[in-house]
Design goal:
homodimer, 301 residues, Rossmann fold, 6-phosphogluconate dehydrogenase C-terminal fold
Amino acid sequence: MLQKIAIFGVGLIGGSFALALKNAGAAGHVVGVGRSRASLERALALGIIDEIATSAADAVRGADLVLLAAPVAQTGAILRAIEPALEAGTVVTDAGSTKSDVVQAARAALGNKIGQFVPGHPIAGSESNGPDAALPRLYAGKKVVIAALPENDERSLALVANAWRQCGAVIYRLSPERHDQVFAAVSHLPHLLAYALVDDIANKANADLLFQYAASGFRDFTRIAGSSPEMWRDITLANRSAMLAELDSYIAQLQRMRGMLAAGDGPALEAVFANARQAREKWIAAIESGTGTTAPQGGQQ
Amino acid sequence: MLQKIAIFGVGLIGGSFALALKNAGAAGHVVGVGRSRASLERALALGIIDEIATSAADAVRGADLVLLAAPVAQTGAILRAIEPALEAGTVVTDAGSTKSDVVQAARAALGNKIGQFVPGHPIAGSESNGPDAALPRLYAGKKVVIAALPENDERSLALVANAWRQCGAVIYRLSPERHDQVFAAVSHLPHLLAYALVDDIANKANADLLFQYAASGFRDFTRIAGSSPEMWRDITLANRSAMLAELDSYIAQLQRMRGMLAAGDGPALEAVFANARQAREKWIAAIESGTGTTAPQGGQQ
C-alpha cells in the first residue's frame, strides 16, 4: 500500500494510474498537481485524486511515490520545484514517451538525489485526453518500460514496477538510449510520416478534391495524425538524434522503391510488399498469441 | 432488371456486386467466370452466381452487363477473349483501382466496340477476399467512380450507374487521368508508404526487438500493408507516372521536415503537425456529416 501518491498531470495517463491503483486497493491518499485548476477540480470530482496540492513541495512531502504525467518538456521544471522537498524515502517516476532527455533533465534537477528517480514509459494511451478520459483499465495487459539508471536501488525499482503491475501492466526493461531508438522506429517516425502525408495533401491546390476520395485505408493510416501537435513537437525534438537516423533510413528506403517504380521493376516491388506483409502478419500473430507480451526480448521483469 | 449479368472474378468485389443486385431484385441470371474452379464452385454454392460459364464467350453472349472484377493486369486478356462475342446491346464495365491503363488496354482489345466499355471503380473493399468475403451491403453508401470515355453513350453510362445505385452506391465522375492522380495521392501512395515502413523495420538487425514494442498506432498505420502484394504491385506499376509524382512530392516533404528536425525548429514542426491535424479533423467532420458523400467536387451524378 502506497500511503501517499503525488501525481503531476491528472489527465489520461496520470488519472488512469491513480484510478487503477485505487481500484486495486493499493493507493492511500492521492494528491494532484497541475497547471489547470479546472482539470484538478474535475479530477477531484471524479474521485481520481483526493486532494489538490497547494504547492509542488507540499504534494511530494511525505509521499511514497510521485508520478510525473505532465508533458515531457516540463520535466526539468517540475523536478527542480520538488527537489528541495524530496525526502529520502520518496521515489519519483515519470510517464514520458522519451527517456534520454528526461534522464538528462532529471540529473540536472535532482543532483545527488538522482537515484530516487526511476524513468518509466507506459505504452498505452488514446487520442482522448483530460481527467474525463482516464480509465482504471487503461494499463491492463499493456507494457510499461522501465529505463533504470545505474543509481537506482532495488527498492526504488521494485516500488515503481509493483505500482504498475497493480495497474495490470507488464514490466519491460530497456536502457534510456535503447528505449529512444526503439520508439523512434515504431512510434515517433510513424507519427511524423502520418502528419507529413496529411500536410502534403492539404497543401495541394486540389486538396478538397483529394480528401473527397480518401477512404478507410487513408483514415487508419493517418489516425495518429490526429494526435496533439504540441506533444509530438516535444517528443520529436526530445528524440531528435534517433528520429534523424530513422527518418534517413526511411527516406533511403523510399528512394530505393522510387528506383524500382521508375524502372517498372514489378518483382522488386512485389518482394518489398510481400516481405512487409509477411513481417506484419508474424507480428500480429505474436500479439494475438500473447507472445508479444509474455516472451519479450530486451529484458522483461 | 438486367436479364443476364456476366461476372469475371467472383470474389469480394464481383461477388458483392452480384449479391447486391440479387438482393435488390435487379439481377436475372448471373454467370460467373474465373481462373479458379474452386472459387466458382464456392460462388455457385453461396448463391452468388447461378451458373459457371463454360467459356468467356458464352458468358458474355446475350448479357446486358459484364463486370470485370479480376486483377487489373488481366483486363486486356479478358477483353480480347470476349470481344468477338460482344453483342451491340451489351455493356462492359470494370472495378479496377486504376483507370488510364485499363482504358488503354480496353481500346487495344475492343477497337470500335470501345464505346461499350464504361470504366468504373468502386471505392470499397476489405482485407478479406474470395467468394466467402462477398457481402450484399459492401457498396451501401460507398462511392463508385465512373471514368467515362468520349465514346460512351448515355444509355451505357446510365446502365452502369443504375446497377451501382441498386447496390446502394453513390456515383461520382472523374476522367481516367484525374482518377489516377487522385488515387495515387490518397490510396496508392499510402499503401507504398506503409509497406516501405514495415519492410524497413523488418530488415533491421534488431527487428524482433522493435516489433516487440510496436503498439496500436503502428498497427493502424500499417494495416494497409496487410493487403495483397500482387494486387498492389499491379496497381503501383499501372499508375506509375502519377505515383512517381506523388512519391517525389512526399520525399520532398520529408526532406523539408528533416531540415526542421536537424535545426531543432519546434515551431516549424508544430505548424506542420497542427496543419495536418486540422485538415484531418475537417475531413473526418465532412465524412461524418455526410457531405463527403453528398456534396462532391469532381462531378457527382
